[in-house]
Amino acid sequence: MHIHNYWQHTKAESIPSTVKLQSVFHNYAHPGDKVLDIGCGSGYSCDQLVSTGFDVIGVDVNPDSLKQASLSSKAKGHILYPFFLQADAGDLPFANGTFDIAIMQAFLTTIATKEDRFRVLYEARRVLKPHGCLYIADFGQTWHLKAYRERYINDLPITKEEGSIIAYDQTSGEVAYIAHHFTEKELVLLLIDNGFEIEFFRNEEFTTRTGNKVNGFIFIGKKVG
């Protein structure tokens, strides 16, 4: 399987959702706002937001996750349901200025190249309303842990980017995908270079799909211009 196809074709149960939406989100969004969950996975955050009065659309490239998200949401019996759509975050099928706020949770880590991350942020800004916000929660580089330090160093000849690591398919042993862990500076510049001002920042500790505790960040950027 090609690396770029992993997230599209893997089974929903194999896709982790360990990063949960933090309460600071509600300081920048209010019930009734139109929310876009980019890389929504099985729709946990979409359900959470719909239940508190938000108008939610979740997008993901993985059809199995979207099917599970839709079934799970309907089983909860919400008065309103989130709408789930298969879409590429680098080419969103929405008009300019559609959403009040967008969220990305442990999503940018799955985007293997700087160019693609830039495109994703460009698209997120495009579909936000003037002064709309982008909430990002993602993994930070964790050099103090030997396991990650060794992977950052050993995988660099292949990934070509410091902080990126290779994940292998547990069945075949082949390369499944490349994950990127960020520095604070990387995420700040990614937001600023794509027309956002930093409204909120916090260091956080997150749990990875393998159960490891790693550094992380929460950012909220406001669309400018």
Structure at a glance:
With 225 residues, the chain is an alpha/beta fold. The chain has helices spanning 6-9, 44-50, 63-75, 114-127, 146-159, 184-193, and strands at residues 34-38, 55-60, 83-86, 99-105, 128-139, 164-168, 175-180, 196-207, 213-223.
Could you please describe the fold and organization of this structure?
It is a single chain. This protein is α/β, with parallel strands linked by helices and 225 residues long. It has a single domain (3-10, 19-140, 181-223), classed as Vaccinia Virus protein VP39 (Rossmann fold, 3-Layer(aba) Sandwich). Helices cover 28% and strands 30% of the residues. It has helices at residues 6-9, 44-50, 63-75, 114-127, 146-159, 184-193; strands at residues 34-38, 55-60, 83-86, 99-105, 128-139, 164-168, 175-180, 196-207, 213-223. Strands 3-2-1-4-5-9-8 form a 7-stranded mixed β-sheet, with helices on both faces. The protein has a two-stranded antiparallel sheet with strand order 6-7. A hairpin with a 6-residue loop joins strand 6 and strand 7. The longest helix has 14 residues, at 114-127. The protein is globular. The mean pLDDT is 90.
